[in-house]
Design goal:
By secondary structure, the protein is of the alpha+beta class. The chain has helices at residues 10-27, 31-47, 103-115, 183-191, and strands at residues 66-75, 78-84, 90-91, 94-96, 117-129, 141-153, 162-168, 197-198. Strands 1, 2, 3, 4, 5, 6, 7 and 8 form an eight-stranded mixed beta sheet that branches. Strand 2 and strand 3 (90-91) form a beta hairpin. The radius of gyration is 19 Å and the shape is elongated.
């Protein structure tokens, strides 16, 4: 099934231009081209309405998406949710994949760190692109959502990042607007038993 292309909103166009300008400044071999690419970066940041102190989109070139993992952990039919400390919104536990770390290792580590729960890995729910649900300073991320089962541990929210950890029944999920952007849709896919979805 073919999915429609995501719309090129002004924010997305500005972000693409910023990424291209950073690559251009890195690879340009003369002062004039570097200045032209710097001007494009300045205009892209203006279009995105970014304050001057917001760091550049990336300090690594070429600018490419980063990879995160989210754990859809089940205990019988209940699903594990966290309430994030930065936004106060609900989400799946997860975070960035570290260098040299396999996705299955990363998701088990993140779930354990954030919730105190040990998970066993079942399968891949899907890969989700966060470009359309990002915050101003967020990176462009591909979220690898992994389904797994409760394998031990007790609920213990990580105090620096997590306000609350709960087991939630499918029929008692918080309202969609109470979820961190993108997470409600990922949770629905996990609850539906989706395997191998590609956003």
């Amino acid at each position: 099934m073919n999915r429609p292309e995501k719309p090129l909103t002004p924010a997305r166009i500005a972000e693409i231009l910023e990424a291209l300008s950073l690559d251009g400044q890195h690879y340009a071999n003369n002062t004039y081209d570097k200045k032209r690419y710097a001007r494009i970066e300045e205009m892209a940041r203006t279009l995105r309405v970014l304050p001057a102190d917001v760091p550049p989109l990336s300090r690594i070139t070429p600018v490419t998406p980063k990879v995160g993992v989210d754990g859809a952990v089940f205990r019988d039919s209940d699903i594990l949710l966290i309430r994030r400390g930065d936004t106060g919104q609900w989400a799946l536990p997860g975070g960035a994949v570290e260098l040299g770390e396999a996705p299955s290792e990363a998701v088990r580590r993140e779930v354990s760190e954030e919730t105190g729960i040990v998970m066993s890995v079942d399968n891949l729910v899907g890969v989700f692109d966060n470009w359309m649900d990002r915050r101003v300073t967020a990176h462009h991320l591909y979220h690898v959502v992994v389904r797994g089962q409760f394998a031990g541990g007790t609920l213990n929210p990580q105090p620096e990042e997590v306000l609350e950890v709960v087991w939630c029944k499918p029929g008692e999920l918080p309202r969609p607007e109470e979820f961190h952007p993108g997470h409600y849709e990922r949770i629905l896919k996990a609850l539906q038993g989706t395997v191998g979805y590609v956003d």
